[in-house]
């Protein structure tokens, strides 16, 4: 089985559910884990990263992802919550009731610190629910790799997934954290081949999770990187499905 653990779905011409399902099928991917997209126009990502542009629509469209997971048995969902909101606990509880299986954080869109009160509350509650917390990290003191690791250390009962193999081409701080923290994982989307290869050599395959970052990248292209890695069948199975199945408690 192959599970894409990270795709963004949105009601757009470039990132909609129908296009994603077709790409999954063409790539031979069996299931996908979706989060809300289009808070940032991924076609302008460099402008956001460098601060030249600000998000136009930072409100996550969780309803679009909810519709996708209810209409497609092969799509699971993570709810995205702005930690600046006053009702974050209630939003997470509602998400669990609607069938979401994890929490997606977006520091680039919502510009928060991992040490904020809203994040602390969400991280604690995710531990109670068995929800993994997925986030990318950014070049910002409050939302850096260091701060995400500190969050994972503070809430050992909660599992944390850092997107895109951490920050930059080869985030060694993230690798070391995955090596030492049982609740810390790396997701591969847009990560470079060599870094993924060397990371698995160093820490093994049990803490690395395949994702595509659709629609910014094509699922088949991201999958090909994993298929080309010099892994054993068991290691490849862990990366492509077993690790995310374990975190989402999928049978």
UniProtKB/TrEMBL annotation:
> What are the protein's UniProt keywords?
Lyase
Q: Entry's InterPro entries?
A: ACMSD (IPR032465), Amidohydro-rel (IPR006680), Metal_Hydrolase (IPR032466)
Pfam family name, one: Amidohydro_2
Give the Amidohydrolase-related domain ranges: 3-247
Domain of life from the UniProt record: Bacteria
Question: PANTHER family recorded for this chain?
Answer: 2-AMINO-3-CARBOXYLMUCONATE-6-SEMIALDEHYDE DECARBOXYLASE
Name of this protein: Amidohydrolase
In which organism is this protein found? Metabacillus rhizolycopersici
């Amino acid at each position: 089985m192959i599970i894409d653990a990270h795709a963004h779905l949105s009601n757009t011409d470039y990132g909609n559910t129908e296009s994603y399902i077709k790409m999954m099928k063409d790539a031979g991917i069996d299931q996908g884990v979706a989060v809300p997209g289009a808070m940032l126009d991924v076609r302008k990502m460099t402008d956001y990263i460098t601060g030249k542009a600000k998000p136009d629509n930072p409100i996550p469209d969780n309803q679009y992802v909810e519709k996708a997971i209810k209409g497609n048995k092969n799509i699971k969902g993570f709810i995205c919550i702005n930690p600046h909101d006053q009702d974050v606990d209630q939003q997470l509880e509602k998400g669990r009731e609607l069938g979401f299986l994890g929490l997606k954080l977006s520091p680039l869109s919502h510009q928060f610190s991992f040490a904020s009160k809203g994040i602390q509350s969400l991280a604690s509650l995710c531990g109670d629910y068995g929800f993994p917390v997925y986030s990318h990290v950014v070049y910002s003191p409050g939302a850096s790799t260091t701060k995400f690791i500190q969050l994972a250390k503070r809430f050992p009962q909660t599992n944390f997934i850092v997107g895109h193999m951490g920050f930059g081409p080869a985030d060694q701080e993230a690798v070391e954290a995955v090596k030492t923290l049982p609740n810390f994982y790396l997701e591969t989307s847009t990560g470079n081949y060599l870094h993924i290869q060397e990371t698995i050599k160093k820490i093994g395959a049990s803490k690395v999770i395949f994702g595509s970052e659709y629609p910014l990248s094509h699922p088949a292209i991201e999958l090909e990187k994993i298929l080309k890695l010099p892994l054993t069948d068991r290691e490849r199975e862990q990366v492509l499905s077993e690790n995310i199945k374990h975190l989402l408690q999928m049978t």
